[in-house]
Structures are given as structure tokens and as C-alpha cells.
Design brief:
The structure is a single chain. With 392 residues, the protein is an alpha/beta fold. It folds into two domains: 166 residues, VC0802-like (2-Layer Sandwich), CATH 3.30.2130.30; 211 residues, 3-Layer(aba) Sandwich (Rossmann fold). Helices cover 41% and strands 21% of the residues. The protein has 14 helices and 15 strands. It is elongated and about 85 Å long. It binds adenosine-5'-triphosphate (ATP) and magnesium ion. The site of adenosine-5'-triphosphate (ATP) has 21 residues, from helix 5, strand 11 and helix 12.
């Protein structure tokens, strides 16, 4: 029965004269999200409203699911659109609408009319009263409740007339593409995909980098990261994933530096390389899935030692989250099952038995001096040879 959706968007409406940029980004993201849904759709914007209209048959559930993944949407209203053929016809359609949506129901209700087209012969209050009367005649079990109605029937009189009564919650946030771009350090774990999702929700476009260490990490481990990038892309739009070959660098650090400092030095090189690729590709920040105290490399001292090697801001949206809360989000966004597939990631191969948990940045800096200028050439090469995979 519903051939269209009215899209409600919140936060972006307050953006003053930038508003149209936000709306255009939202239009683009809606079109992107609907591209794999069965059916074809017309997505339009008029007078501060956005509509998705199906052109012919389509899959309602799939369309709603897709729209629920578009950041910036706060409400998805299945809507019936009518040509204006006079008030009599409208009243008939309203009664028909309630009959098909709710059957012989006995809910309390309220009609909420809005006359955006001021030439319409009846005023909003009159429309409310007259339609309310018709509804009561046809459905004797229903009752008007203007304060806390169970059912709110919206009637918007514009060029055409829009009827809706259901608002399906959207994800909120801001449309991707309205807040620049950042580079996500994406491992095969639970945390980093969630971190990417959260930052994308603030309107940031996401690129990703994965540090691969063949043969210590398998093709399967890499595929898992590609799969995770695809899951993030369902929300964030296409993700450019850079796969960096990290083997040589890891082995070299392993050869030269104290083993209990391996993880921290490796992480510093990951950040350096990620920042280099970010600079080259237009990202303004880095994103990690780090959370204080989760593992030895995420104590405050470790985070400080890792952080000092880059000048870009590092966004760590999970910094104060408990693992349990991160898991809850990863289940909700459907990355959890992929994340827990048992494929090694590169850090686990080279972990020391007793890694430092309170590294002193000055000491780490000194250890890194044991790496000759060879390391700079390796970093250059890692940046230059990164493999680009476009996902989603
Ligand atoms: P995750 O669940 O995201 O893997 P984690 O709890 O396993 O995190 P670490 O392995 O210490 O924690 O990694 C911390 C962060 O560093 C990750 O959230 C991710 O952003 C980044 N990271 C770790 N390993 C890699 C990798 N191989 N490639 C890209 N980024 C990585
Ligand atoms: Mg990990």
C-alpha cells in the first residue's frame, strides 16, 4: 500500500546556510543505500522535505532496512501520496487508509493536519475536526485523545496530499560526506569496525588501512578485513581499503629492538604509515579502535607513546567503552560474527611474553634509534606499494 517514504532529518536542519550541502549529501547517501534494494526509486527534495518514491514494485522491508542505515535520517515515514481531488475524496481516502493500516481498531487518535499550500479551502483546524468526525463515524471504537493519542494521523496539504501515521526510527547522526574524511586503522578485531561506524555516523567519510604480514598472516585473514570493510561500507558508503605489506618492517623491528617493546614500536610504525597514506589521499584524521586499559598496548602510557608519532588528530571513539558495550554495538551493526572468525592478525604473531605495559616514550624513542635509515626506506616502500581495494 505504501509507494513512498517521507524522510525526516534532524540535526542537519540546524546548519543554517550550509543546509543544502547537508541535504545533498543525504540525498546521495539515500540513493547509494537503495541501489541494492529490489525496485527503483526516485529520491527528491522539496521545501525542506525529502521523499523516496518507488517506481513500480519494490521490496518494502528491504527499503526500510536500507534507509535505517543512512546517517542523518531520524525518521522514516511510510506515506500515501494523493492528488488533490477535493475534500470529499480526501475524507474517503483517509478512512480507507486507516482501514487498511489498522483494520477495525479501537485506538485513541488525533488528526494532525498541516496546510503548507495556503490556497487550500479549509484551514488546518477545520481539516482536523472534519476528518476526525469522519473517522469516528466509520470506526465507532476509536476515540479522540489530543494529548496522548495512540495513533497520530498526519495530513500534509502541499501540491499533493501526504498521509502518514507511522514513524520508523532512523539511525540519527549526520550524512556521510559532510565532515571530511578520515583514515580508519582496520584490523580483523571487534573494535576497529565499530570505531569506523561511530565516526562515520558523525558524517565523516571513511578510508581504511590494514597491515598485512604474509606469510605470518594468511590470505583468509586479509579477506576477513575486506569483509569487515564491506560491513562498514553498508553504513559509510564505499570504503577505499589500503592493504599495507608490513612483514619486512615487523621482522626488522623484531631483529633490532627489545622484544618487550615490539608491540608498541610496531604500533608506532602503523600510525606513521597510516598518517602518510592519509596525507596522500586527503584524510584529515586517523581512527583506531583503542580503549583505555583493554590490553597492554592500550594503557594510558602506551597510548601516549603511540600517539606522539603522528601530528594528525587521532579519533578513538571507543576510548572509554567497556568491551561489553563495544560487543553490543558490533552485534547491532552486524560486524561481530565476522570479527570473531579465528584468523590471526599480525600483532598476535610477534607478541612478547611480557610486553611493557608502562612504556616510557623516551625509552621507546631510544630503542627506535637502533633501526637504521633502512627503516625509512621500508616505510616509503610500504606506503608506495599499498594495495587499494575498493569495497562496497
Ligand atoms: P581490534 O579489535 O580493533 O583489533 P584490539 O583490541 O585487538 O582491537 P589492538 O590489536 O591493540 O587492539 O589494536 C588497537 C587498534 O590498532 C585497533 O583497534 C586498530 O584500529 C589498530 N590495528 C591493530 N592491528 C591492526 C592491523 N593489522 N591493521 C590495521 N589496524 C590495526
Ligand atoms: Mg586486534
Amino acid at each position: 500500500m505504501f509507494k513512498a517514504f517521507l524522510i525526516k532529518y534532524g540535526e542537519i536542519a540546524i546548519k543554517g546556510k550550509n543546509r543544502y550541502l547537508f541535504e545533498n549529501a543525504l540525498l546521495a547517501q539515500i540513493r547509494h543505500a537503495l541501489k541494492d534494494v529490489e525496485g527503483s526509486f526516485l529520491v527528491t527534495k522539496e521545501q525542506g522535505r525529502m521523499y523516496v518514491e518507488a517506481q513500480g514494485d519494490y521490496d518494502f522491508e528491504e527499503a526500510v532496512e536500507a534507509l535505517k542505515r543512512v546517517f542523518g535520517i531520524v525518521g522514516i515515514c511510510p506515506v500515501v501520496i494523493l492528488e488533490d481531488e477535493g475534500f470529499e475524496r480526501l475524507a474517503e481516502e483517509v478512512v480507507k487508509y486507516l482501514g487498511s493500516c489498522y483494520g477495525e481498531c479501537d485506538k485513541t487518535f488525533k488528526v494532525h493536519a498541516r496546510r503548507a499550500r495556503k490556497t487550500y479551502p479549509l484551514q488546518s483546524m477545520e481539516i482536523n475536526a472534519q476528518l476526525g468526525g469522519r473517522i469516528l463515524e466509520r470506526f465507532p471504537g476509536m476515540k479522540v485523545d489530543v494529548h496522548h493519542p495512540k495513533l497520530m494521523l498526519y495530513v500534509e496539504i502541499r501540491e499533493r496530499i501526504y498521509l502518514y501515521s507511522d514513524v520508523i526510527p532512523g539511525p540519527g547522526g549526520m550524512p556521510v560526506g559532510t565532515n571530511g574524511k578520515s583514515m580508519l586503522l582496520l584490523s580483523g578485531g571487534i573494535d576497529s569496525p565499530v570505531a569506523g561506524y561511530m565516526v562515520a555516523k558523525r558524517g565523516v567519510k571513511i578510508d581504511a588501512v590494514y597491515f598485512h604480514a604474509p606469510p605470518y598472516t594468511s590470505e583468509r585473514a586479509k579477506q576477513k578485513v575486506v569483509d569487515l570493510a564491506a560491513k562498514v561500507a553498508r553504513y559509510a558508503g564505499p570504503v577505499y581499503l589500503y592493504v599495507v605489506n608490513f612483514t619486512e618492517i615487523q621482522l626488522y623491528i623484531y631483529e633490532k629492538c627489545p622484544h618487550e617493546e615490539l608491540t608498541i614500536i610496531m604500533r608506532r610504525y602503523m600510525m606513521r604509515i597510516a598518517e602518510r597514506i592519509a596525507e596522500k589521499t586527503g584524510s584529515l584524521g586517523l581512527i583506531t579502535g583503542e580503549s583505555i586499559g583493554q590490553v597492554a598496548s592500550q594503557t594510558v602510557q602506551s597510548l601516549a607513546a603511540t600517539n606522539e608519532v603522528c601530528t594528525m588528530p587521532v579519533f578513538r571513539p571507543l576510548i572509554a567503552f567497556d568491551k561489553e558495550d563495544i560487543v553490543t554495538i558490533s552485534k547491532r551493526i552486524d560486524t561481530f560474527e565476522t570479527s570473531i572468525q579465528p584468523f590471526e592478525d599480525c600483532c598476535t604473531i610477534f607478541v612478547a611474553k611480557h610486553p611493557v605495559t608502562k612504556p616510557n616514550a623516551a625509552v621507546i624513542r631510544k630503542s627506535e634509534l637502533k633501526l637504521s635509515e633502512k627503516i625509512d626506506a621500508m616505510v616509503d616502500e610500504a606506503v608506495e606499494t599499498a594495495e587499494l581495494i575498493v569495497v562496497g
